[in-house]
Amino acid sequence: MASSKHASPVIAAALFVIMFSHAAAYDPLDPNGNITIKWDVMSWTPDGYVAVVTMTNFQMYRHIMSPGWTLGWVWAKKEVIWSMVGAQATEQGDCSKFKSDIPHCCKKNPTVVDLLPGVPYNQQIANCCKGGVVSSWGQDPSAAVSSFQVSVGRSGTSNKTVKLPKNFTLTGPGPGYTCSQAKIVPSTVFISADGRRRTQAWMTWNVTCTYSQLLASQYPKCCVSLSSFYNSTITPCPTCACGCQDKNRCVESDSKLSSVVKLHKQTKDNAPLLQCTKHMCPIRVHWHVKLNYKEYWRAKIAITNFDYHLNYTQWTLVVEHPNLNNVTQVFSFNYKPIAPYKSKNDTGLFYGLKFYNDVLMEAGPDGNVQSEIILKKDVDSFTFKEGWAFPRKVYFNGDECMMPPPDSYPYLPSSAHSTLLTILPSLAFFWHQERVRSSFRQQNRGMIYRSSKEYTGEDDDVEDNWQRANIPAVRLVQHGKKPSSRIVDSNIKKIWRIMIQSGNDGEIEARLVH
Ligand SMILES: *[C@@H]1O[C@H](CO)[C@@H](O)[C@H](O)[C@H]1NC(C)=O
Ligand SMILES: *[C@@H]1O[C@H](CO)[C@@H](O)[C@H](O)[C@H]1NC(C)=O
Ligand SMILES: *[C@@H]1O[C@H](CO)[C@@H](O)[C@H](O)[C@H]1NC(C)=O
Ligand SMILES: *[C@@H]1O[C@H](CO)[C@@H](O)[C@H](O)[C@H]1NC(C)=O
Ligand SMILES: *[C@@H]1O[C@H](CO)[C@@H](O)[C@H](O)[C@H]1NC(C)=O
Ligand SMILES: *[C@@H]1O[C@H](CO)[C@@H](O)[C@H](O)[C@H]1NC(C)=O
Ligand SMILES: *[C@@H]1O[C@H](CO)[C@@H](O)[C@H](O)[C@H]1NC(C)=O
Ligand SMILES: CC(=O)N[C@H]1CO[C@H](CO)[C@@H](O)[C@@H]1O
């Protein structure tokens, strides 16, 4: 078992290949997701045209994070950019041929970036100047748009002579997007604010860009770890899930950090600075099957940032699980079902609450966000067996996270029932029975199964639960803390010791020690 828990790099690499062989520009969880770039020619000028360029992110859960998008293209003729509003070309290029009026950009292949918030009003247009940050459609359609205006010279001056720009490139930020050729589409119709007048663009063309994780990076960018109340095993992220090539520049622990971070901040190095872990992922998503109620069950989700150099703004998490069609309650996160195929409805989008946890802070004590969800059991399909309670797919910020191999999932002890009955006939409690209060397995170390029936509070007050759950505990020893005693059942002959430990996601875990 130990060997499968810590999958060797070879196995991890093999899984990686399996997982990524299916990755293409087509995303089954978001089949219509794309970024559309629309050019509306608003007027002709003596030597060209003025266009408003609108980028709309139709992707349900993949946003464009700071430092934002860059858009590039290649002019079909000898066009120049006279001026821009709401964005700028990163390089002016060679404008030496011009004597009086100097263009904003003379490059054959201009690269354009958004302006930062707070630029003067005369440089702004609607939907500009957000530092290139664009929300995903699922999070906030009103913020999923970015626009700028460009005044083009030395181009055609009618819809017959204009040649469309070619070879569009988009980074969002970093690679991953492939853009189609520009295509003339029916001119956009604008409706005036009072709704009583319609105008239309002189000419409109569209470019569609789609994302492929394979193009974006060689390795996954996040991984998943799993645990459950019914098995004390914590299934970690696969070893080297995100590649181990950066292992020589990771940071061992928070304590050694300050000197290293200073060093890197001085060198203005924007590359990730990861905390050293076996998985070497910047992001870990932990899924804990927490409680079992009669008609409901409860899972806890914790996302941890291991990158000391990055705050994830407007992060998104997508989970595919067959029971997400019956989400009853989600704590601390926003939740939206994404229904790519209406019959399935098994995929949901989680994202942070504004001003509370919409930023996943850099690695360290604040570098995590957490939520709990309550799901209604569908009696026909619900089970804790065979890892059913764990997610099928997890995406962080639109990138699929590497799951542990299925044979390492914590599984339901098959012998729990009989063991309990023989050892504790008077406490014939079993976690999935209605009358259950609480139960535990007698082993060298067993796990306390906290019973949902007794558990009503929101808190993690384990001692309190146990008292209510009537566990024959005489002593609670909190890991690293002074023992506190609690005599509950005077009939018991054996002394049990219960250790409380903090799990790797801060989850409280109870172990029964014989
Ligand atoms: C881009 O996305 C929009 C919205 O989902 C969709 O209507 C359109 O067909 C997509 N375009 C392409 C080329 O996939
Ligand atoms: C062009 O892009 C806009 C979004 O900017 C979209 O609404 C429109 O449907 C697209 N047209 C075509 C023909 O794809
Ligand atoms: C150009 O404009 C004319 C008149 O507005 C229109 O009839 C024609 O279809 C347009 N051609 C293209 C290629 O858009
Ligand atoms: C556009 O890209 C294609 C292939 O990527 C290349 O063959 C072509 O030369 C490029 N066109 C221009 C104008 O750069
Ligand atoms: C992350 O945000 C915090 C608080 O806004 C800030 O102090 C910190 O410098 C940021 N870290 C990075 C790497 O940008
Ligand atoms: C999908 O599931 C959500 C709960 O997560 C529910 O509110 C919604 O009605 C479901 N939609 C369909 C089409 O079944
Ligand atoms: C918990 O699950 C692991 C598999 O990850 C398994 O090896 C172990 O036997 C299970 N524990 C119990 C108590 O059944
Ligand atoms: C138990 C329960 O409420 N099941 C419902 C889950 O959601 C589907 C549709 O999304 C319903 O058809 C089930 O009745």
Protein described:
With 514 residues, the protein is mainly β. It has three domains: 2-23 and 218-408, Immunoglobulin-like (Sandwich); 35-211, Immunoglobulin-like; 416-513, no CATH class. The protein is 9% helix and 34% strand. It has helices at 2-5, 9-21, 213-216, 257-266, 416-423, 462-469; strands at 35-45, 48-57, 70-74, 80-85, 87-89, 111-114, 145-153, 166-171, 177-179, 183-185, 189-191, 198-200, 203-211, 222-228, 231-235, 283-292, 296-305, 312-313, 316-320, 327-330, 333-338, 347-352, 359-360, 368-376, 393-396, 399-400, 438-440, 445-450, 475-478, 484-485, 497-502, 508-513. The strands form seven sheets. Strands 1, 2, 4, 7, 9, 10 and 13 form a seven-stranded antiparallel β-sheet that branches. A six-stranded mixed β-sheet has the order 15-14-16-17-24-20, with no helix packed on it. Strands 27-28-32-31-29-30 form a six-stranded mixed β-sheet, with helices on one face. A hairpin with a 5-residue loop joins β31 and β32. The longest helix has 13 residues, at 9-21. It is elongated and about 80 Å long. The two termini are 22 Å apart. The structure holds 2-acetamido-2-deoxy-beta-D-glucopyranose (8 copies). One 2-acetamido-2-deoxy-beta-D-glucopyranose binds at residues 159, 184, 203.
Report the sheet-strand fraction.
25-35%
Number of strands: 32
Rounded mean pLDDT is: 77
Bound small-molecule species = 2-acetamido-2-deoxy-beta-D-glucopyranose
The percentage helix is: under 10%
CATH class designation of the largest domain: Mainly Beta
Largest sheet: 7 strands, antiparallel
Radius of gyration: 28 Å
The stretches of 5 or more residues where confidence is low (pLDDT under 50) are 1-24, 415-514
Helical/strand content category? mainly beta
Number of domains: 3
Report the principal-axis shape: elongated
User: What is the CATH architecture assignment of the largest domain?
Assistant: Sandwich
Subcellular location: Cell membrane
Domain COBRA C-terminal: 221-410
Signal peptide: 1-25
Main location: membrane
